[in-house]
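Exercise 7b. Backbone tokens:
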């Protein structure tokens, strides 16, 4: 895809057109921890970018990994949307008033026992954000074009328990975007552009349908 096809406002129009009609699949977690993340989309030099975080080596989970801002739902959160916005503000200093929410993607069960709901939001260029240095080592401004080329993508077989599953990896310079974050991006890009470099991708669950069923059934979780 040509870079000229990725002008910010063209990409934003595509995202808005998809999100306004998309009905995300939700799931009712029982033994899973409800969580939410924000997929921040922004304009840099008239090109669409995603904002991700590089976790510190001192956080409790996912040390040194690339992720979207977000976290587990707290009792005081009235909804998972509030969770995504609160966690984003706490982690990177982005006020919820400065996020224009565009929609949500499918709930995503992780092997670390979270049920993650991703929300897509438009933000301004993140030049004045103040990160929480105990959780976030740095911010990563990743051009949308990175996810539209197979040269930056690979699939590895990953063993968990008694089974082996395909895990997605995106290469961004010296950083690896992988695991749940890569799956969420893969789903998002597939929805918006109809592009997926994964072999035999399953749009509604890019890992594979059997893995999703196992994750839900094993934990007694109903999906809808």
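Sequence design result:
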């Amino acid at each position: 895809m040509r870079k000229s096809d990725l002008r910010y406002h063209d990409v934003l129009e595509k995202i808005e057109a998809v999100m306004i009609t998309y009905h995300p699949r939700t799931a009712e977690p029982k033994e899973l921890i409800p969580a939410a993340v924000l997929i921040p989309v922004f304009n840099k030099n008239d090109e669409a970018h995603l904002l991700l975080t590089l976790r510190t080596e001192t956080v409790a989970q996912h040390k040194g990994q690339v992720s979207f801002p977000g976290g587990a739902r707290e009792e005081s959160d009235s909804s998972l949307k509030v969770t995504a916005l609160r966690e984003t503000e706490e982690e990177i200093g982005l006020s919820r008033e400065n996020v224009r929410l565009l929609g949500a993607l499918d709930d995503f069960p992780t092997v670390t026992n979270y049920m993650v709901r991703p929300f897509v939001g438009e933000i301004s260029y993140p030049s004045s954000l103040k990160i929480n240095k105990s959780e976030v080592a740095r911010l990563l401004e990743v051009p949308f074009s990175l996810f539209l080329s197979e040269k930056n993508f690979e699939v590895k077989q990953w063993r968990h328990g008694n089974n082996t599953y395909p895990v997605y990896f995106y290469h961004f310079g010296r950083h690896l975007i992988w695991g749940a974050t890569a799956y969420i991006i893969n789903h998002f890009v597939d929805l918006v552009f109809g592009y997926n470099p994964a072999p035999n991708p399953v749009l509604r669950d890019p890992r594979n349908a059997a893995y999703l069923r196992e994750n839900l059934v094993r934990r007694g979780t109903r999906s809808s």
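Instructor comment: The longest strand covers residues 33-44. The chain has one domain: 3-216.
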